[in-house]
Amino acid sequence: MKINRPLSPHLAIYKPQLTSTFSIFHRISGSFLATMVLFSIFSFKIGDLSLTFYNFYQYFFFLTFYLNWVIISLVNFTLLALCYHMSNGVRHLLWDSGLFLELSKVYTSGIIMLFCAASLALLNIIRQH
């Protein structure tokens, strides 16, 4: 039996909104941070599994000596994702408490959140060097 009703619109139809974009990037940054935590735990466990630690130190030396720019870029990108995720999380906590729920304040808080995330990341990167 075929019901003659319109299907749910696809994502290609919608114009991207600021709130939906922030929500998607909040989920992406959370997934990226979880992946980085698992990667760091796994890389430290490789050293625990080795009986002599020689291969682990050789691998670690190769990463730090030859691929230093990759590690620094990955740390900075992780720091940016952490600052964004944390700032957007504070924004969501404010929403849960009933603040900034009007549409104009939602957009204003989004811009403020982006500014806070970028400033936190930039200050930490400057402090790191």
TrEMBL record:
Chief place of localization: membrane
InterPro entries: SQR/QFR_C/D, Succ_DH_cyt_bsu_CS, Succ_DH_cytb556, SuccDH_FuR_B_TM-su
Gene3D superfamilies linked: Fumarate reductase/succinate dehydrogenase, transmembrane subunit (1.20.1300.10)
Domain of life, source organism: Eukaryota
Cellular component terms (Gene Ontology): membrane; mitochondrion
TM stretches of this protein: 24-44, 56-87, 107-126
Places the protein is found: Membrane
GO biological process, one term: tricarboxylic acid cycle
Cofactor stoichiometry and binding remark: The heme is bound between the two transmembrane subunits.
A Pfam family recorded for this sequence: Sdh_cyt
Keywords: Heme, Iron, Membrane, Metal-binding, Mitochondrion, Transmembrane, Transmembrane helix
One GO MF term attached to the UniProt entry: electron transfer activity
Membrane topology label: Multi-pass membrane protein
Cofactor(s) listed in the protein's UniProt record: heme
Xref: CDD domains: SQR_TypeC_SdhC
Residues that hold heme according to the record: 85
SUPFAM superfamilies, sorted: Fumarate reductase respiratory complex transmembrane subunits (SSF81343)
PANTHER family (UniProt xref): SUCCINATE DEHYDROGENASE CYTOCHROME B560 SUBUNIT, SUCCINATE DEHYDROGENASE CYTOCHROME B560 SUBUNIT, MITOCHONDRIAL
Protein name: Succinate dehydrogenase subunit 3
Organism: Radula japonica
Source organism phylogeny: Eukaryota, Viridiplantae, Streptophyta, Embryophyta, Marchantiophyta
